[in-house]
Design brief:
Length: 344
């Protein structure tokens, strides 16, 4: 049995033809799914033979919303979603002036081991398929009753560690009769898996690449992000320049400010040296504290000073709004507390 959401239109058309059915049946099936009908037996314009064949071969894995929390402060909705095999992940829907954005997970857990992140505490359980990532966007839209127009792949998991499935997701979410979310409305965030940044550039996609940098020093970065033992900052910057040259897209550098670790003047100066002249933008993130970690977030005044230093060197810099601060919205925290409270 397979998740039908992992198929694109052409693949389902081919399957229909193999069954001796007309290929337009495939579009009918997807039309039902995108209109909220997830059971083949309820798809009224299909013959009973097709319905039976579909149910023998496929299921529609729309994850169950186990819990949903809505922030009282800013309407952010955090969802804990359970797939058919019982695995639980989290996604967050955020409301911005420019439209609704969903932050999706790409893996159940993560094996990258970043010290400030709750998603990695129990390692990576498995990759999510393209259809499973897509279904988070479908569920998010249904839950808020509005269209989702932007996707950031920044929840649990390292997307470039699940490269093929994430590429399939780009294709599925872009389908004009489905969710119709174009590549320019997708941001993919990586901790810096250098060879995959080159691969992504060579595909000439138009997605925004976000790099979780978090320190301008290799030695410091190694202390908080084990991936830094494999790829140096210079390697990452070279790969980013290549990405910019090939795609013409501006890169975002994510930088979670941690008190006295990466928010000092010398950190800002080194960051400026690395990024000056690049088509990029720095997104400063007030770190979400994880109770299992001793790292503390920077003070508001250090964050402001850091921003001003970068800006005075001509580097465009923003401070990410702290969305959903009242609902444990940081990466992996909600899933972790849910699993811990049930001894899962
Ligand atoms: S920050 Fe991202 S890459 Fe690092 S452990 Fe968490 S989910 Fe994985």
């Amino acid at each position: 049995m397979n998740n039908i959401l992992d198929l694109n239109l052409e693949e389902l058309q081919q399957w229909m033809e193999k069954q001796g059915e007309k290929k337009f049946r495939a579009k009918q099936v997807f039309d039902w799914i995108y209109n909220g009908v997830f059971k083949f037996e309820e798809m009224r314009n299909l013959s009973s033979t097709v319905k039976v064949k579909l149910s023998e071969e496929f299921y529609v894995d729309i994850p169950e919303v186990v819990e949903a929390y809505k922030s009282k402060v800013d309407d952010t909705v955090k969802m804990l979603l359970k797939y058919r095999d019982g695995n639980i992940i989290e996604s967050v829907v955020m409301k911005y002036k420019h439209g609704n954005t969903i932050c999706v997970s790409s893996q159940v857990g993560c094996r990258m081991g970043c010290k400030f992140c709750a998603s990695t505490l129990n390692g990576c359980v498995r990759n999510l398929t393209g259809g499973e990532i897509l279904s988070q966007v479908i569920v998010g839209g249904r839950l808020i009753g509005e269209r989702i127009s932007n996707v950031v792949i920044m929840g649990s998991g390292e997307p470039l560690d699940n490269y093929d499935n994430v590429l399939k997701f780009f294709e599925l979410v872009n389908w004009e009769h489905g969710l119709n979310i174009g590549q320019r409305h997708i941001t993919i965030s990586t901790c810096g898996i250098v060879p995959k940044i080159y691969d992504l550039a060579n595909k000439k996609f138009q997605v925004t690449l976000a790099i979780s940098l978090h320190s301008p020093w290799d030695e410091e970065r190694k202390k908080i992000m084990p991936i830094a033992n494999k790829y140096s900052i210079v390697d990452i910057i070279e790969a980013c320049k290549y990405y910019i040259n090939i795609t013409g897209r501006r890169i975002t550098f994510e930088y979670a400010l941690i008190n006295n670790i990466n928010d000092r003047n010398e950190d800002a100066e080194q960051l400026i040296k690395l990024l000056k002249g690049m088509l990029c933008h720095v997104n400063l993130i007030p770190m979400n504290e994880v109770k299992e970690s001793a790292l503390k977030k920077s003070s508001t005044s250090s964050i402001r000073t850091f921003k001003e230093r970068l800006e005075s060197a001509g580097i465009e810099t923003t401070i990410r709004r702290e969305l959903g601060a009242d609902i444990n919205a940081a990466c992996g925290q909600l899933r972790k507390s849910y699993m811990d409270s049930r001894n899962i």
